[in-house]
Design a protein that fits this description.
Number of strands: 13
CATH topology of the domain at 55-257: Sulfite Oxidase, Chain A, domain 2
Oligomer: single chain
Order of helices and strands: HEHHEEHEEHEEHEEEEHEEH
CATH architecture of the domain at 55-257: Alpha-Beta Complex
Shape: globular
Strand content: 15-25%
Number of helices: 8
Length: about 325
């Protein structure tokens, strides 16, 4: 069965809506073709991921706690975007059970004086683990409140001693073709790549996370290690990291490469800048889906403006979205 991929025409030559429709149509075609050819993993729903993990002791850091009610553990672990396992919200929890997280190591490389490869155990021991309750805002217009476990990414950055040429940090996610059925559909160019400016990566809010709800990360939430950047849309927080690179030039991140009219490098939560196809002024909090539950107003920088707005002083946030 022939699958026709969307045109390689530059997004600037066609409308964002056409880009979006072409991409979604191609995803559907690929899924139907995979099913027809009997490719295991695309339609196999038996590879259920764990919804609970191993206990991960951590003291709560009261300086990083929002007053919002945390989203239920069930919602946090069953409503996910992790396209390596599929594009539906339930795909990560139903298809990631065979994903291998042990042994695991993360390579830290590039413009650093002390490049190194650290095992997951070494990473967890690098700094004291703490629980932080952060808001999560997805670019799609929904949100959660999640109790993460980890420590500031800056602890790792200081350990490897970046050179003066290190202006950005690039995060590369894992690729396991035999356990990640979504890799068979090039929604984006795999592996998944994200990035931060160096001052963003060094900010105390930027978290290297190993757990959620007092336990190790489930596969569907980015096990065994991910980054969490709470003032940015969720796609900026790379999951299942295998490489952290320090680079001089702004990295070409996955969604910027796929759809630059829709997703910018900075991706700061901003109710004043709409997505090309929907407003960002309000959000739907997962777990508050009752008939009479109103949408919430989206807060600029997801409510973390007091801590991070100075990072963008003088920048046109509608241009650098």
């Amino acid at each position: 069965m022939l699958i026709r991929r969307p045109s390689d025409v530059r997004p600037s030559e066609i409308t964002p809506e056409q880009v979006y429709r072409d991409r979604r149509r191609w995803i559907l075609q690929a899924g139907l073709a995979a099913s027809a050819m009997g490719l295991s993993g695309w339609t196999d729903r038996r590879a259920f991921a764990q919804t609970t993990g191993v206990k991960l002791p951590a003291a709560r850091n009261g300086a990083y706690v929002v007053m919002d009610k945390p989203t239920s553990q069930k919602d946090v672990t069953t409503y996910n975007n992790f396209y390596e396992f599929g594009t539906d919200k339930g795909d990560p929890s139903s298809r990631s059970g065979r994903f291998r997280t042990s042994p695991w190591s993360v390579s830290v490389e590039g413009e650093v004086l002390k490049p190194q490869t650290l095992s997951i155990d070494d990473l967890r021991k690098l700094a004291p683990l703490e629980e932080r309750i952060y808001r999560l805002r997805c670019v799609e217009g929904w949100s959660m409140v999640i109790p993460w476990i980890g420590y500031s990414l800056s602890a790792l950055i200081r350990r490897v001693e970046p050179t003066g040429n290190a202006k950005f940090v690039e995060f590369v996610s894992a690729m396991q073709p035999d356990t990640m059925p979504g890799l068979r559909v090039p929604v984006i160019d795999w592996p998944y790549v994200e990035g931060l400016r160096m001052d963003e990566a060094m900010h105390p809010l930027t978290l290297l996370a190993f757990g959620v709800y007092g336990e190790t990360l489930p596969n569907q939430n980015g096990a065994p290690v991910r980054v969490v950047v709470p003032w940015k849309y969720g796609f900026k927080s790379g999951k299942s990291l295998v490489k952290i690179r320090f680079v001089e030039k702004q990295p070409m991140t996955s969604w910027v490469r796929a759809a630059p009219h829709e997703y910018g490098f900075y991706a700061n939560v901003n109710p004043e800048v709409p997505h090309p196809r929907w407003s960002q002024a309000t959000e739907r909090r997962i777990g508050e889906d009752g008939l009479f539950s109103p949408k919430r107003k989206t807060l600029k920088f997801n409510g973390y403006g007091e801590q991070v707005a100075s990072l963008y002083s003088g920048m046109d946030l509608a241009r650098y979205y």
